[in-house]
Amino acid sequence: MLAIPLPAAAADVPLAPTNLMSHGKPCVTGDSRPSVLTATPVLAARQQHPTPGKQSLTTFFYWWPLGGTRNETDVLSQASGNPSNVSQAIPAGRLTDGSSYVWQARTFDGTAFGPWSVKCQFTVDLTPPPAPAGVTSSDYPTGGPHGGAGVPGVFEVTAPAEGGGDIAGYEYSFDSGTLGGTFVAARAHDHGATITVAPPHDGSNRLTVWSKDRAGRFSSPFTYSFSVRAPAGPAAEWTFDEAGDAGDRTGHGNTVVLSGGATHTDGRGGVGAALSLDGVSAFAATNGPVRAPNPDTGTMTKVRTDHTFTVTARVKPSAIGGGEVAAVSVDGAVTSAYVLGQSGDRWTFRMAGSDTDAPVSAVVSSDAAATAGKWTHLAGVYDSFTHELRLYVNGVRQSTTATLEGGFRATGPTAIGRAKAAGVATGFLGGAVDDVRVYDYAESDPHLAAFAVPLQPVISFPDGDTVSKGGKLTVRFDARGDENVVRFDYSGGGSNQSVEAIGGSATVTIDARSTGTSVVSAVAVDAAGHRSLEVLASFTVVGVASVSGTVLDLDTFMPVEGATVTMEPGGLSMVTGPDGMYRFDGFPAGSYTLSASKGGACPLSSGSIHVDIPDDAVRRDLPVFPPFDDSGEPTCTPEQGSE
């Protein structure tokens, strides 16, 4: 076999190990040293000998406590080829949690050791992340009862005072105090998070929050206790989700019977069903006055129209204009005690002063014109103490009010989709009505605003939910047909942004910054600033494999121009320029063979180099050398072969 001598400039010993990694983290010393979340971290390096024929190499990994000295006890070794990546895991029981260590490596070729590598450091961290520093809420502060069951509130989670940078997010649940709840990602700028959630019940509630670090470990829990107001709730509620007549969701037995050709249609955003009305004869009504249990005695009692009450409905009229049409009303003997609906081009809430053919009435009208073909939430409140009528449109209290000194106590049924005047049915509504509620008290502004909160948007990925690192991910937000939505607030790709909703949807692109699974979150926001509950969707960022380097003449250690570099499998090939550089991109991660050669009067050849290429950039220089004669001397040099 021919002996291939080393170039005179190279020593016949292994090179110092390179590509040092402390359990997958780059070699660092000092305060920036990485933390390893295991007691058996893997130390890794790349070993290499300048002589390609030296294939039996062994790298020794030494470690010792920071402040100590290298010894011959704490050492591991790994044998492999030339060049190759080598690694070893420190055995269990050799490291202490919370302690920092130094490590260093060098390679042995069977005859001589090469030089030492640079020193690396790491800290063993087996301790779970710290718990959140606190939780606050202006919607549900500690102390007396606030809000209501099912009414969303905002809870602000404060990151722990130390270690916040390693917090990926927080998991939370109500009352159970056990993991398995809902996860919310931490904000990039302060490592805290915002939880928007509705308490599940009235009375005492406990929101338990855990920090979750990037390794997937959870902290001890932080518990936030608060009290939720316990209102009596609606006296009657109808959602029209069942076929046929609509049952009272409260359980109070106030069923409404569909009449005059009333049918069902899709609810807002395709959620559930709604009452469909033709504007001519169709309506629905109870068999008598709405009843609810007295909060003190439990006795079923009629809801009085001459006392404080609230009525709400979600309405989607097919047309606007003309006379009064009713979404909800209550029958007196000859006229409606109140009508919540639309008159002319405005939403209205009207109450009659007496049960006569032509009563004096008090009317509150909306600030803006009503819109046809669009779901709108209406609420009318009558306060018998102040005699004030208030109208709410999409949860917003309208600027004008009206007063009614008289009023009367109606004893007839509650009607949906029609009114009564001069003893006959009138004011039939064309379109759809849904989510009708009647209360025997004045519902609060925050609760009425909550009814108008947009539906959660739908997040989709038109081009798929997988994107290459450094690329752009296309994300689409859809308001599910809710035309009240004017924008989407979203976070993803490391930033919080807003985008206008045009036609109920919006499409954006976000940066794919780091590999792995990431999350984009969004809320829908209406013109009044009401925000939907947050929705999350995950996507995957994959790395882009690439390999590059320089072809070097082993006789001169100069870059080689005109060398053909190939990579197999894949059949990739290119010819180097004056700088001797080559680069291949856009192929799957895996094991490949790289080779370089140059023909002509003085051919140069490198043989083969095997390399494992991950989902990331890798650099490998390729040596080439001239042919040798039987005496081991080059048969030619590049200069001899040049023209």
From TrEMBL:
Gene3D superfamilies: 2.60.120.200, Carboxypeptidase-like, regulatory domain
Location of region: Disordered: 624-643
A GO MF term: carbohydrate binding
Any Pfam family: Laminin_G_3
InterPro entries, per the entry: Carb-bd-like_fold, ConA-like_dom_sf, LamG-like
Keyword Disulfide bond: yes
SUPFAM superfamilies: Concanavalin A-like lectins/glucanases (SSF49899), Starch-binding domain-like (SSF49452)
Keyword Ribosomal protein recorded: no
Domain LamG-like jellyroll fold: 307-446
Keyword annotations of the record: Disulfide bond, Signal
Protein name, entry field: LamG-like jellyroll fold domain-containing protein
